[in-house]
Design goal:
Blueprint lengths: L8 H11 L3 H4 L2 H15 L12 E8 L2 E7 L7 E7 L2 E8 L4 H6 L12
Antiparallel strand pairs: 1-2, 2-3, 3-4
């Protein structure tokens, strides 16, 4: 049995870790599909004129609580899209055709990130 601060602390921490949501580390097909759906929903917002079916999402990559993907759309722009696990769901935090190191820091990427090398 693990003992820490106070009797049974390790059991409580272990149970909390066991039931904590961890899709960013899981990198399952379901996670990749959820990232794709989040990107399509963001880029095909009302008024964009782009239907979700015209947004191609491929090569989904995960790093910690972040994901990124190659995106093509009907308007022929190829934005760089970053998605982050927030409030127990994948949410687009940045979609742009121009990314700078300052932009990556702004959205919370660590300096050592391999996904944000701009």
């Amino acid at each position: 049995m693990i003992w820490g601060i106070g009797r049974g602390f390790g059991v409580v921490v272990g149970a909390a870790l066991l039931f904590a949501p961890m899709p960013a580390g899981a990198q399952t097909t379901a996670d990749a599909m959820a990232v794709r759906d989040a990107i399509r929903a963001e880029l095909a917002r009302p008024g964009s004129g782009i239907p979700p079916s015209m947004i191609g999402v491929s090569n989904v990559q995960f790093e910690g609580e972040f994901a990124t993907a190659d995106v093509t759309s009907a308007d022929s722009s190829k934005p760089i899209v970053f998605v982050r696990w927030i409030a127990e769901r994948w949410q687009v935090v940045l979609a742009s055709t121009e990314i700078t190191p300052g932009t990556c820091q702004y959205i919370g990427f660590p300096n050592t990130s391999q996904m944000c090398r701009y």
